[in-house]
TrEMBL record:
The gene is Spata18. The keyword Membrane applies. The keyword Transferase does not apply. Residues 17-206 form the Mitochondria-eating protein C-terminal domain. It is found in: Cytoplasm; Mitochondrion matrix; Mitochondrion outer membrane. It holds the Pfam family MIEAP. One of its GO terms (biological process) is mitochondrial protein catabolic process. Belongs to the MIEAP family. InterPro entries: MIEAP, MIEAP_C. The lineage of its organism: Eukaryota, Metazoa, Chordata, Craniata, Vertebrata. It comes from the Eukaryota. This is Mitochondria-eating protein. It comes from Chaetops frenatus.
């Protein structure tokens, strides 16, 4: 670990948090659709394409959070030797990680996500499709998810379950939904959460 020096307070900045939320929205509006376009030549069923991307988003957040946890332990072990304040050690660790983004090997997380998806027997996808084709989307999601862990409190995505009761405070209905159906058929995009509060709604499809 490099020599410790005071970090800029970017982690606690409201504008930094706002930028991360805006980036989440941008990925949903642009990179998600680009990934759909990339997958369509391999998968003709649009529902399957959307399920793949949703799982990619969840897996990316899981991989990034695990990587963050490991880095946080390492940084904390090093900083505690010389930490004198004025911030708490916990805040100092988060600030340090936020300002030294190269601590995170995002390529490793991308590889983990792709391997997990390729080996997932429940993933409804032809066996000859390698999910490396959407590695750009996965990389963006991993980088964003990692950065969101440096916030206090951190931001995370909600894990939806097929068949759950549709929650209008957490999800928008997709345009092709049955708007009278009370249950979620499948999820298109996860909701962004801060503790138990919905920061950005996700998207889900409801069908009878």
């Amino acid at each position: 670990l490099r020599t410790w020096s005071p970090a800029r307070p970017c982690r606690v900045s409201g504008s930094h948090r706002a930028c991360l939320i805006a980036r989440f929205n941008f990925i949903y509006a642009k990179e998600r659709l680009e990934a759909e376009t990339i997958l369509r030549p391999f998968v003709c069923d649009m529902e399957v394409v959307q399920r793949i991307i949703y799982i990619a988003a969840l897996e990316s957040f899981c991989a990034a959070k695990m990587a963050f946890w490991k880095i946080k332990i390492s940084v904390k072990d090093n900083l505690c030797l010389n930490h004198l304040g004025p911030k708490s050690l916990e805040v100092a660790v988060l600030d340090y990680i936020a300002c030294h983004k190269d601590l995170y090997d995002v390529c490793c997380s991308v590889h983990e996500v792709i391997c997990s998806m390729n080996l997932n027997p429940k993933l409804p996808c032809p066996a000859d499709v390698d999910f490396i084709v959407i590695s750009t989307l996965i990389r963006e999601l991993c980088s964003l998810a990692f950065a969101m862990q440096t916030l206090s409190p951190p931001l995370d995505v909600a894990f939806g379950v097929d068949g759950e009761l549709f929650n209008s405070t957490m999800y928008y209905r997709s345009f092709d939904s049955d708007f009278t159906a009370p249950f979620v058929a499948y999820h298109v995009w996860p909701a962004l959460m801060e503790n138990d509060a919905v920061i950005v709604k996700g998207e889900a499809v409801t069908k009878t």
